[in-house]
Specification:
197 residues; alpha/beta; Lambda Exonuclease, Chain A; 7 strands; 24% strand; binds iron/sulfur cluster
């Protein structure tokens, strides 16, 4: 990694979901669609074609490129809204809110970029879950910022060291489109066999 390398904002989401999945997608260049990823891509395509305009007191602009020189981040926000001089990044997701907070991390990374671009503090954003048709408020808290910055640093460390994060079987593997390539349970079995040998 050098000074010209930027981390895709979506990489933070994938890293928080599973660091090994992040490595497969963004370092090894692997990606396989499953039902969830196809629905997600289709949702983003629909959102991005809607353009910009006013909705009552809210100005909305879609598919906005964001960049941060400080954090070396780059990516696209699905929707940015401005209400009474306050700006809000909004990320669209196909499903419903789950127990892990990787979507919040993605919104926080968008906020870090937006702050640098407009020179104004962003205090809140949203994740819109298409399945439940609900907006989930994301407070861009000091704690979330610390987590986002730590995630950026962890990703930079992987890029610089070339070290592959281990594949560890968890509940998240069940919905992972890379399961067939990764086979984390098979890796665990081989390790256990090596240990008792
Ligand atoms: S199958 Fe599990 S360990 Fe492997 S990339 Fe997916 S989530 Fe990560």
């Amino acid at each position: 990694m050098n000074n010209h390398d930027y981390i895709p904002i979506a990489a933070l989401n994938q890293y928080a979901y599973c660091s090994h999945r992040y490595w497969r997608m963004f370092c090894a260049g692997e990606f396989l669609d499953n039902q969830y990823t196809i629905e997600g891509t289709s949702l983003h395509d629909r959102v991005h074609t809607l353009g910009e305009g006013h909705r009552e007191d809210t100005w909305q602009v879609r598919a906005v490129w964001l960049k941060s020189e400080q954090y070396k981040l780059i990516g696209k926000a699905d929707l940015i809204e401005e209400v009474d001089g306050n700006w809000y990044p909004i990320e669209y997701k196909r499903g419903h809110k789950r127990e892990w907070d990787n979507d919040e991390l993605q919104v926080c990374a968008q906020a870090l970029c937006l702050e640098e671009m407009i020179g104004q503090k962003i205090t809140q954003g949203y994740v819109y879950y298409a399945q439940s048709h609900q907006r989930q408020l994301v407070n861009i808290s000091a704690e979330l910022r610390v987590t986002a910055i730590a995630t950026i640093q962890a990703i930079q460390n992987i890029q610089q060291s070339g070290k592959i994060p281990p594949a560890i079987y968890t509940q998240r593997c069940r919905g992972c489109s890379l399961y067939q390539q990764c086979l984390p349970q098979a890796v665990d079995k081989v390790k256990r066999y090596q240990e008792i040998k």
